Amino acid sequence: MNKIIWINLLLVLNLSAEYTQKVKVPSMTFAVAEDKNIMVMQRNCQWCHSYGYILNQGKQPKEFWHKVVIKMREVYKAPITPHDEKEIVRYLYTHYGKD
Amino acid sequence: MDRREFIRLSLIASTAVLTTSSSAFETSRPRDNQKVSSVLFPEKGDMIVYSDRPPLLETPRDVFTQAITPNNKFFVRWHMTNIPTPLNMDTYYLQVHGEVEKRVYLTLEKLKKEFKSHELTVALQCGGNSRSAFKPTTSGIQWGSGAMGCAKFKGVKLKDILNYAGLKESAKWITLKGNDKHVMSTMPHFKRELEIEKIADDVIVAYEMNGQDIPYLNGYPLRLIIPGVYADSWVKMLSDIYVTSEYKEYYYMDEAYRIPDNECECETPEKRVEKTKPLEMMNVKSYIGYPLNGAKIEQKSNITVEGIAFDKGSGIKEVLISLNKGKTWETTKLDKEINPYAFRVFRYNFKPMNKGKVTIMAKAVNNEGEEQPFAHEIGWNHGGYKYNGIDSVEIEVV
């Protein structure tokens, strides 16, 4: 039922010639593994992307995750400190790792 | 080697023997049958969602029984999290500058009223569509096969816009940029580049998609349409065309969205190919929209397998179906061609006589005689691009 109301609202929105208010993309929760240092993920990753990006990769070797973290800093300019770099790789490998 | 290590290695070795036909380093089928999200996105219906920031939405398989993908089912892929809503169309400009006679600021209204409009139904596909087929896993979103769609676009020829601004003799390249922004201000914009000499006549700057404004998530109000070419150059929320006398290097041109520049367009994780090239033209592909993987079909009932096929624009010659894992192939009936760039619907009638599992495979052949390979014949590439393996669904006859 809720879905139907939404769809109707959105159809109305779509027929109008232009947007009259900011389009709001819904906020979703992508649940990732709890950890003693989940803060390191919160303060480094979520500026730019959801945890969906992590879950979508599936379980990966340590080297894969390390490369990703370096890419986030080098290419996407995430201000990841060397200390956090180690912790993020540890988190990812612990919960989403394989050999 | 100690005993434990030896046992571990033996286990790996025995697993490898057991799975020789689908070893860890062989391309397999892309992921399928993923649940649609219970959360709906603006102007979108049921979609598979990989991320909300930035939004990444995949079209479910059952949509691919029709030539036109509805706007509310059309896939969504953004690189940047900050996607502004263009609220005041009087001040939304497509700016053309650089090596031009006059710098121009075109409003949507001006494009609609003062330029000749053109319509084209054309397929659009993410370069990483079906990426999840590649093993070992490459970086990038692990799409199933629904990062594609086909829509009827309406807009203005890119060439008309460039001519309106007046190209100087020195003009050789254009840089295209949209209004989406990265959170970190030091991160470069998503920019793509085209060589002016190679811009085809049917490249358009679209303002309509299937008779409506382009949805916000698909790049409202303006999107570049390049028939036959992978979506990485179809810049969304287009706002800036910078004309230059020489090629400029950008991250999304020179680092991302590139494949090995060799015949198989493949490499291995251990030995990456140094010389690379952009993705550009799409290879031939087909996809079954009905029945779905795992469907239960009643014995002796009449069913019609339906799906779509497309390529770079040479057009689809035929789509073949196999019910015996590729030993023999039968022809399907193709719907009338809208144009060579659009999805072409195929249909195949079949009556399952025996109970049990049946694998239905579809293989498209284009007018240049190119046909889809089996998944395991496709070599790996580091970005997981251009997968076009023969599609298959497994049904159960009950």
Helices and strands in order:
The complex is a heterodimer of chains A (99) and B (398).
Chain A: H1 2-15, H2 39-44, H3 52-57, H4 62-74, H5 82-96
Chain B: H1 3-18, E1 48-51, E2 56-58, E3 76-77, E4 94-98, E5 104-106, H2 108-114, E6 117-125, E7 148-157, H3 158-165, E8 173-178, E9 191-195, E10 204-209, E11 212-213, E12 223-225, E13 238-244, H4 251-254, E14 258-260, E15 276-278, E16 285-290, E17 296-297, E18 303-310, E19 316-322, E20 330-331, E21 333-334, E22 344-350, E23 356-366, E24 391-397
Parallel strand pairs in B: 4-13, 17-24
Antiparallel strand pairs in B: 1-2, 2-3, 4-5, 6-7, 7-10, 8-9, 8-13, 10-11, 10-12, 14-15, 16-18, 18-22, 19-20, 19-23, 21-22, 23-24
Plain-language structure description:
The complex is a heterodimer of chains A (99) and B (398). With 99 residues, chain A is mostly helical. Chain A has one domain: Cytochrome Bc1 Complex, Chain D, domain 2 (Orthogonal Bundle). Helices cover 55% and strands 0% of the residues of chain A. Chain A has 5 helices and no strands. The N and C termini of chain A lie far apart (46 Å). The relative contact order of chain A is 0.15. With 398 residues, chain B is mainly beta. Helices cover 9% and strands 31% of the residues of chain B. Chain B has helices at 3-18, 108-114, 158-165, 251-254; strands spanning 48-51, 56-58, 76-77, 94-98, 104-106, 117-125, 148-157, 173-178, 191-195, 204-209, 212-213, 223-225, 238-244, 258-260, 276-278, 285-290, 296-297, 303-310, 316-322, 330-331, 333-334, 344-350, 356-366, 391-397. Chain B has a 5-stranded mixed beta sheet with strand order 5-4-13-8-9. In chain B, strands 6, 7, 10, 11 and 12 form a 5-stranded antiparallel beta sheet that branches. The chains are: A mainly alpha (99), B mainly beta (398). The A-B interface holds A 3, 6-7, 10, 13-15, 17-28, 30, 47-50, 52-53, 56-58, 60, 64, 67-68, 71, 75-79 and B 37, 39-45, 49-56, 71-72, 81, 83, 85-87, 89, 137, 139, 141-142, 182-184, 186-187, 212-213, 215-217, 220-221, 251, 255.
